[in-house]
Design brief:
mainly beta; seven-stranded mixed sheet; six-stranded mixed sheet; 14% helix; elongated
């Protein structure tokens, strides 16, 4: 071996079972919509939040897809309504792209109606000029207006600035009250359709966070005088699958979801924008039959209906309302054979992965409450809620979630409880016992240095036991070409909270040259 031959060695440290992620799972989705042989008196699609963006063609493609499916599902439309956020920023070029698609795809005799959304103001123009652009591009006569379609009243509102929560002025709301009173006087039992971008506060799913703020009491009180009102609103992007997307108390409110992408309430493990949120695209078709309104929910991303249609019979009769806050008292349930388990190979120092089958519910399993109880202290070291991923197509049959924030080398009891959209919780809970890893490979270094001059190098592997019990295992060393090691597999044992350096002698051969990389893997338990 020549003394002048310099060998550089790099070390890669690998600890088994560290990586955690949500599982990629397949699933099931309900599709139901029977053909109705009755001829409707009125048919109109409602969509929202198309968000045509100059910087992307994705939303244009989604809009084309939506228009094609709506035309196929409803070949004879009387009206077509878009309740705001036609564009992402209200640029003239974005409006041009929107209407190039809309005018190509819309049916010849349809009455088109559009409201402004907050995004349609976000172009740097003054409020007045942003409104002028909307009116010019959309062809609407005014910011809020009333139309008759096949004898039914359509009242369309628009926010009067770009604030996220929307401003509906006293003047606009008073105008609304006048139109509602006139419509009810003419046809006391006939539904009145009201369209606006932001939800009415404290009505549909998402309105608690994304509903109107200013003048909200006046707006609600104006509508509540007329139980036959059915409002349609977007803005939140919340999905149509959740039963709270339709709401009845003093009148009927309907959330329209979004053509562009999905959003959800904050505070869940998957976040406000869960994985795959940009793949979700939804809208609806409304059919009216002599005092009965049927709302069919469409998944454009899978070219199918989602769930059963909402049916509103006698919309003027409050005592007939069925989509109320207290409509569901039944709890979700796990099957008798259902069990939760820990994915051992994914256990780390501070996390455990729990997997379990989905519970069942009469309407929808919305989420799961998951806790991790430290068996030694009795404390909950983890406590969180995760979506059931009901918004995916197909919905997963089994779920897997990382339970993080745990203590090393500790025994835990993981508890899983199912929740539906109305906060009913499963009586049965699933339990799983697991222990976090106690071992961590803190570092690996070459001594005296990474660069050697024809001499052997000692790889110093520092191990630490973070638990209270002793830990046994093995260290495996994969040497690069041109190197050999004295022990390519080394057993170790560390007592509770012990830290130890394990030396491994690495020897270069005569043919060694250039940079080389060692891979050191630590296994707990042999």
């Amino acid at each position: 071996m020549k003394a002048k031959n310099k060998i550089a060695a790099m070390l890669t440290v690998v600890t088994v079972g560290v990586t955690t992620s949500l599982s990629s799972v397949q699933a099931f989705s309900e599709s139901s919509n029977s053909e109705n042989k009755r001829k409707p008196e009125l048919v109109f699609p409602v969509i929202s939040d198309v968000h045509i963006d100059d910087g992307s063609t994705a939303d244009m493609n989604k809009f084309r897809t939506a228009m094609d499916q709506l035309n196929k599902a409803a070949p004879k439309q009387d009206a077509f309504v878009v309740v705001g956020d036609l564009t992402d920023y209200g640029y003239a070029t974005e409006y041009d792209k929107f209407f190039s698609i809309y005018n190509e795809k819309k049916q010849a005799d349809v009455q088109s109606m559009f409201t402004m959304g907050n995004h349609d103001y976000w172009n740097g123009l003054s409020v007045e000029k942003a409104q002028d652009r909307f009116l010019e591009k959309s062809g609407m006569d005014s910011l809020y207006y009333h139309k008759k379609v096949n004898g039914y009243d359509f009242i369309t509102l628009s926010p009067e600035n770009g604030n996220t929560h929307g401003l509906y002025s006293v003047n606009q709301i008073n105008w609304l009250g006048e139109k509602l009173a006139a419509a009810e006087k003419e046809n006391p039992d006939q539904p009145i359709f009201v369209f606006l971008h932001q939800h009415i506060k404290d009505t549909v799913y998402g309105s608690d966070l994304w509903g109107t703020q200013e003048n909200k009491e006046l707006l609600y009180d104006t509508l509540k005088k007329h139980p036959q009102v059915i409002t349609f609103s977007g803005h939140s992007h919340y999905p149509l699958e959740d039963p709270r997307t339709i709401h009845q108390k003093d009148f009927t409110s309907v959330g329209t979801s979004s053509v562009s992408y999905l959003e959800l309430e904050p505070g869940k493990l998957q976040g406000f924008h869960p994985e795959g949120y940009r793949d979700i695209s939804q809208g609806m078709i409304v059919e009216v039959y002599n005092n009965e309104v049927i709302i069919k929910k469409r998944d454009f991303h899978k070219d199918d209906w989602t769930g059963k249609p909402w049916v509103i019979k006698n919309p003027s009769k409050k005592n007939k309302f069925k989509y109320t806050d207290d409509r569901d008292q039944l709890s979700p349930s796990f099957a008798g054979k259902d069990k939760a388990s820990i994915v051992k190979e994914k256990s780390t120092l501070r996390s455990l992965n729990v997997t379990f089958p989905q519970a069942k519910d009469n309407v929808l399993v919305h989420s799961y409450h998951i806790t991790a109880k430290n068996k030694e202290s009795g404390e909950l070291d983890a406590d969180f809620t995760a979506f059931s991923e009901f918004y995916l197509d197909p919905v997963p049959k089994n779920l897997e979630f990382p339970v993080t924030g745990l203590k090393p080398g500790t025994d835990y009891e993981i508890k899983v409880q199912a929740l539906d959209s109305f906060n009913n919780s499963s009586k049965k809970v699933l339990l799983a016992d697991g222990q976090t890893k106690a071992l961590e490979m803190v570092s690996a270094q070459a001594s005296p240095s990474l660069v050697t001059t024809g001499e052997s190098t000692t790889l110093q592997v520092k191990m630490k036991n973070f638990g209270n019990d002793s830990v046994k295992g093995k260290i495996k060393v994969d040497a690069p070409e041109g190197w050999s090691v004295e022990h390519n597999e080394l057993e170790y044992e560390l007592s509770g909270s012990e830290e130890k350096n394990l030396p491994i002698k690495a020897i270069p051969s005569k043919e060694s040259s250039g940079s080389s990389q060692f891979t050191i893997t630590a296994y707990e338990g042999g």
